[in-house]
Amino acid sequence: MAAGDTVEPGYNLHSLHCYFLKGGLDQPILYQVEATREGSTYCSRSVKAIQNGLTLFTMQCSFKKQESDSFEHQFKMPDVPKPDELKDRSQLYKDWIDETDPSDESLRSILTSDLREAETDTCEVRPVYPWRFRRENGDKPRECLWIRAKQPLGHDLHIHKSVATYYSDLFMADIARYPKPYIPGIHAFFVISLDHSVWFHQPCRPDDWLLYELECPCTANGRGFIVGRIWSPDGKLVMSVAQETVIRTAKAKL
């Protein structure tokens, strides 16, 4: 949003590439924006997020003016159930809690905390493959999720792209750990984003349903690489996403 405030009307964000350098505190953050290029079609910005004199985050982003071209091509959207045919993530947590042994207080406590987090999120999430939701025995590092903002976002396209970028980071790191079994309270992972890149192909509205298709081609040397495609309900590929994340396994302390 800070970078977008520095460009002239008519320029739209088309790509961004960022690094997460250091964790922040619950304190104000200064966003420092540098104009690195001004062109007739493209312009670029460099952004630093600074807190207490330390750089937490850096980003390069590029904006361009709209242009038309007769040549277009895209992959086909996956053939998956529609959102109204699927359960929300909150309901899946409720079902899991109901099926949990009442004497397993540790697991029930963790799931209840996850449920509260899901209910207070700004977005609604409906997993396409609900059996992968628990990952008790591990699974293929692939996922599809329908996601949308719970509140209308108005008509500012820059706000739409900013929110879509924020949502694009929420679930990527989890895909890297899918092949390993995961039972809350038994298995633990340290997972955190290292870098994140987004390319916008078409306009998108995150306050309408978007299908988020994710896969992790490789995890090695303490890092997972995740790629994603985001589709509009009418089958347009609106965004592509890539991320590298730190991932380490550990035995949880009960």
CA radius of gyration: 20 Å
* Physical arrangement of strands within the biggest beta sheet: 2-3-4-1-7-10-9-8-6-5
CATH architecture of the largest domain: Roll
Q: Report the average pLDDT across residues.
A: 89
Low-confidence stretches: none
What's the count of strands? 10
What fraction, in percent, of the residue positions are helical?
Answer: 10-25%
The CATH homologous superfamily of the largest domain is termed Hotdog Thioesterase
Q: Any key phrases for this structure?
A:
alpha+beta, Thiol Ester Dehydrase, Chain A, ten-stranded antiparallel sheet, 4 helices, 41% strand, globular
Overview of the molecule:
The protein has 254 residues and is of the alpha+beta class. It has 2 domains: 1-65, Thiol Ester Dehydrase, Chain A; 121-254, Hotdog Thioesterase (Thiol Ester Dehydrase, Chain A, Roll). Helix content is 17%, strand content 41%. The chain has a 10-stranded antiparallel sheet. A hairpin with a 2-residue loop joins strand 3 (42-51) and strand 4 (54-65). Helix 1 runs antiparallel to helix 2 (105-120). The model has no long low-confidence stretch (mean pLDDT 89).
